[in-house]
Amino acid sequence: MSKPKLLIAESTLGEPWLAHHWDEFFDCKIFDWTCNYNTNDGVVLIDDRYDREKYNQIKSQGLQVVRPYLMDSYVQDPCEYPGQDLILRAQDSIWIQESAMWKHLKYNTPRSAAVPRKFFLLLINQLRPHRKTLLEAVDSYLPESLYTCVVRNILLPDDVYVPITGRPGTANDRHYVPRWYSETCFSMVSETLGHSNRVTGDLLYISEKSFKPIAHSHPFVIQGTQGNLQYLRSRGFETFSHVIDESYDQEPLLKNRVKKILEILDSLYQEFKRTGTVFQDARTKQILEHNYNLFFDSNKIRELFRDQIAHPIMEFIES
User: Parallel, antiparallel, or unpaired for β 146-149 and 5-8?
Assistant: First the structure.
């Protein structure tokens, strides 16, 4: 039986680390903008949110379109079928894409064992309001931690700065420097959103930021939307309730989550000053190994890609 035809016009989804996943389920080609296509040539994959002009060019040829909203979506948001399009969403799309990318980049090479002597690692590009609040609150810990705040020109050694014409630049948020993690006890993650922008309630938002410490075998505390830790546990990952009070994850209000996080940091810092390190117990090491193995599990990633990305597209093509 022949595979459904798929024309990939969204450049981020045509990257080599995803190619074998696409090729398993589809007859794939990269979309050629100099060509005229017809409906027999396949369904086109393009995210219209970032280039509406190209999307309109495709639609003018009468082609079916899959709009992959696999980044910058809330976890709970379902697929949609506006007009003749499919808006594709996948609850685990960040895990799928980051695992494939970081394995391709050989970030899954275990780093040398070391006892960390810095408190936490905090990586900030854009200084959103919730991050500014956090950064000000943890100011006393910063001299004994590693942190970035790119918009304030605070970068770490070996960071990769990316200039952007017309606005402040950024750091390469997929760049991995092993010693940043070896030298710090845990990641203080400040997610893209501290709360949802929806008036209907606090929806769950997960980015690569929550998966970085998992991929890099690092304990973590997450300042994000309500339920980030619950989401990770529902996927089989383990967290660190044996060391810290993780009830902050279920606080509906951001200010209360931040208050509890600051209490956690204070407690950890007291131990850090007393012993020189934290999160060095045997149970933590078991959790780090489990999470690392699950994150990079090729069979699991294939299963997630099949069920959440390939099958919805195939059903859309057949409908």
Answer: unpaired
